[in-house]
From TrEMBL:
Keyword DNA-binding: no
Keyword Ion transport: no
Function: Ferredoxins are iron-sulfur proteins that transfer electrons in a wide variety of metabolic reactions.
Protein name: Ferredoxin
GO molecular function, one term: iron ion binding
Gene3D superfamilies referenced in this protein's UniProt entry, alphabetically: 3.30.70.20
Organism phylogeny: Bacteria, Candidatus Roizmaniibacteriota
Residue ranges the record marks as coiled coil: none
Keywords: Electron transport, Iron, Iron-sulfur, Metal-binding, Transport
Length: 91
């Protein structure tokens, strides 16, 4: 995490907005499996507590990759909403 900056330093696990999505990581659910990091490395990284946090480079990630990362989470800890607040994942 040395040279990677957070999208929101006050709320490292979100919610944050990027283009048409709102992303939030439920830190109580996150188990640090890092599937999200493997699928969307410009969006997610694990912090010192092995919890997913959202990087400032999230804007460089495709929306499809972000949604795939949420779907890949084994405990559905990543919540994705559209710009109107409708939940995309998990439903």
């Amino acid at each position: 995490m040395d040279n990677q900056s957070l999208k929101d330093t006050n709320n490292p696990s979100g919610p944050v907005r990027t283009r048409n999505l709102k992303i939030k990581v439920d830190r109580d659910l996150c188990i640090g499996a890092a599937t999200c990091v493997a699928i969307a490395p410009k969006t997610f990284v694990l912090d010192s507590e092995a919890k997913a946090i959202i990087l400032d480079s999230v804007d460089q990630e495709t929306e499809a990759s972000i949604i795939d990362a949420a779907k890949g989470c084994p405990v559905a800890a990543i919540i994705i909403e559209d710009k109107k607040g409708n939940r995309i994942f998990p439903k």
